[in-house]
Fold each of these.
Amino acid sequence: MEHLSQSDPSNQITDFMPFEKIDIDSIDEERRKSIAKSIRPVSVEELKKLGNEIFHDLDDPWRETFFRFIEEHSHATIHHATSSDGVHFIYCRDEDRGIWFLPGSGKGALSVKGRQMIRAAIEGKS
C-alpha cells in the first residue's frame, strides 16, 4: 500500500500520518485468509458507526479522511475487511478505490496490488 502525496492532484485522500509502510507484497497467507474471511459489504450507517468508534476526536484528520471517503462513495457498494493484525480495509469496487487504516498508527490509499487483493477476496465470496 502506498502513502499518497499531496502534490499529486489525482489523489483525493491526503493527510497521512507516518506508519511503518504496509507492503502488500509481504502480506502473509494468514493475513490474506483473515481478509478473505472478513470481507463483506457494509452500509454507510455501519461505516459511520465504525468511524465514530475508532475516531473519537472530532478534530482528528484521520476521521475527516475516513468520513470523506464514505461520503464520496455512498452511492456505491463498499466492502470492509480486517486483517489478522488489525488493519482495516475499506474498498469501493465500483470505483476501484480504497483506503486502509490501523487505528492510532496510520492510514493510506490502497495500492494497485492492494486493490487486486481485495477484489480477489470479494470474488472469492461470490
Amino acid sequence: MSRNRLFCVAVAAFLTFSVTGCKSDNSTTPSSSTSSASSSDAGASSASNSMSSMMNSATNLVGQLGGSEKISSLASSFLGNVKSNPTTSNLVKDSDTSSLTTKLTDQLNSMLGGSAKAPLTNEEIDAASKKNTPETNSALSDSFSKALESLSANQTVKDTINKTVGPKIGGILTGLLQK
C-alpha cells in the first residue's frame, strides 16, 4: 500500500473516530467511570472496525478491479489468449474450458482478496510451474498481461494484479489442468 493511500486511510479512520467516538447514543450522563470507560472502548472499537473495513477495501483487488464478473472475464480472456498462442495452445487444446475458467476464476479471486476458495495452494503452484519451460511460463505471463490490459480498470490496479499473478500464472494454469 502506498504511503499516500495509507495516510488517507489513517485520516479517514481518525475522522470516523472523531465523529462516531464523540457522539453518544446515551442521552443520560454515565454515573460511574466504568460506564465512561466502556463507552470509550465502544468508540475505539467502532473506529478500529472502520479502519479495518477501509484497509480491507483498499487491499481487495477484486473490488478495485470491478468485482467477480471482471475476474471471470479476465480468466476467460486469458484462456482465449492461451488458445490462440502457438507456444501455449497445446496446453489447453483437450481441456474443458468452461470448467477451467471456473477454477481459474476462483484461484484469481482468492489470490486478489476475494471470497472464493483457491483450488491450488502456493506449494502446488510452485511445483506445477517447474513442469513448464521458462519460455512457456513467459508466454503464459504475456497472455495474462494482454488479457489484463483488455479490461477497463485503473492502471495501478492492473499493474498490481499483474505483479501478483503474472509470475505465477504458468504454475496456476498447469496446476489447474492437473486437477
Amino acid sequence: MAPAYLIVALLAVPVSGALACLAAARPRQVLAITIAVSAIVLALAARLCASVLSGSLVESAGGVFVVDAFSVFHLIVLALVFLICSLFASVYFADEGGAHPFSRGPARRFGALWLGSLAAMILVLVSNNLGIMWVGMEATTLLTAFLISFHRDRLSLEAMWKYLLICSVGIAFAFIGTIFTAAAVQSGGGVGADALLWTRLAAPDMRLDPTLMTFAFIFVLVGYGTKAGLAPIHSWLPDAHSQAPAPVSAMFSGCLLNIALYCIMRFVPPARIALGGFADGLLVFFGVLSILVAAGFIVFQRDAKRFLAYSSVEHLGIIALGYGLGPLGTFAALFHTLNHSLSKSLAFCAVGRLGQRFGTHDMATLSGALRHDRLWGLALLGSVLSLIGAAPFAIFMSEYQLLRAAAGAQKWVVLGLFLAGASVVFVSALRHLIDMAFGDAKTPSSPLRARTASYAVAVPALAALLFLGLWLPPWLVEAIDRAAAVLGARV
C-alpha cells in the first residue's frame, strides 16, 4: 500500500470498526472487533513509521494530512497502548455482571465510542491543519465523556459532567490560541492559506507577530494543557480516572493525555521562532508545578485509581519539563512518553482486575495482591516500580536523561525541585505499593477465571519495560532522534 493511502486507511479502519460494533449481534463479537481493529491500526502505523523514517514527510489528500517523525512516533505509542487496552477490555468486560452487565446494548455502545475515540486521536496526529487538529481534539472530548459514565451511577455521571465542563473550557481556550496563531501569521505578512498549516508555521523563514504569538501560545498551553492534565488545570482527571472502567482509565493515561500534549508541541517551533525561549520557560514552569502538585496529592491517596491518576499528572509534568530543557531533554521526554504509556496502562489494567477480585479500589483492601492473584499482583508491582523510577525499569533511564538535560542546561533550581518532587512520590508510592502487594489481606477476594488475554497484556508489557531499561535499540534511538529533530532538537 502506498504511504499516502496508509493515512487514509488509519482513519477509515477504526471508523468502519465502530460501525461494525453497532451491528454486532453479541458482546463477544464487539470485543473481537475492537482487538482486530487495534491490531490492524498498529500494523498500519508500523508500516507508516518505516516510510517516514526512510524518507521525510508522508502527505495525503493534497497536504491536508501530513505525518512526520514526531507524529508517527506518537502514532506508534497510541496504536501499541490502544491494543493493550483493547486486549484488557476483553478480559475486564468478560467478568462484568451484577449492576453493570456487559450485554448487547452496552457492548455496542462501548465498541462504537471506543473505536470512535481511536479515530479522533488518529485525526489529531495526522492533521496538517491546526484547525482540523482542534476538531479532532474536541471530538475526543465528546466521545470519551460517555466512556467515563459507561457504568451509570451518580459518581460516574458527576465525573463525566466535570470532565465535559472543564475540558470544554480548555478546548475553547485552545481555539482562541489557534485564532491568535492565524492572526500572528497574517500580521507578520504570511499568506492566509498557510496560516494554520504546521508544515508552514515551522519553517525558519516564517514571520510571526511576537505579541499575538505570545497570546497564542499562552492560550494553547492552558487550553490543551487542561486536556493533558497539567497542574493546576488538572482537577477533572482524578475523578474521571477513578470512575471510568479500568480499560478506559488505561486508555486515558496511556493515549489521550499524550495526544493533548502533542497538540501543544505543534505550536512550540513557531513560538520559538517568534519568541525565543519563552515557550520553553512556560513548559518548564508547568512541568515542575505538575510534579510538585501531584507529589503532594499522592501522599494522601487511599484509592488506587486516584493514586494512578495523580501519577499521570506527575509524569505529564515530567514530559513537559523535558520538552523545555533543550535537545537532550526533548529526547528524554519522548522516551518517557513511551515508557509512561506502557507503565501506566499496565498499572490501570492491574488495579482494574484486582478491583474486580476485591470489589473495591481502596488500597487498604487490596492488600496481599500477590498472594491472591500472582499475575496481576506481579503486574501491579512491576508497573508501579517502573512509575516511581526504580531501576532497572525504563522510566529510570528516561528520568536519568532528564536529569542530565537539566544539569547540562544549568537549571539547578529546576533540578532540585524535580528531585524533591520525585523523592516524595517515590517514598509515598513505595509505601502504598508494599502494602498492596505484600500486606495482609483485609477481606476475602472473589476468584476470577484465568484468561489467555491477561497474559498477552501483562507479560509483554512488563518484559518491554525491563528490556528498555537495560538496552535502547538503535532503531528506537533513531526514531526518537528524528522525532526530536522535528521540534528543532536533534541530540
